[in-house]
Write a structure and sequence with these properties.
Blueprint: H1 2-11, H2 17-29, H3 34-46, H4 48-66, H5 74-90
Helix pairs in contact: 2-4, 3-4
Length: 92
Amino acid sequence: MRRVMSFLMRLMGRRTCEDVVAVLHDYFDGTLDPKLATAIELHFRDCPDCRTFSKTYGETIRLTGELATDDIPEEVRNRVRDALRERSNEGV
């Protein structure tokens, strides 16, 4: 049923929360098709959860963009990198 609703919403030009999350990175870096970006913004207007999530996502991007990589100790960078590798290997 969920797939049917998602399909119908897309036919009507509306997007599901899953659709929004899938393209959020492109939305924030400005590479999303303008028509799709408009549809996403309409979704934000009607969906407080996605609106809140996108604000948090955008703020995270802004804050991490201000953080110089030199400010992160090498030991911490290595631990984060190792944890991400380990986590990505769990899905394999």
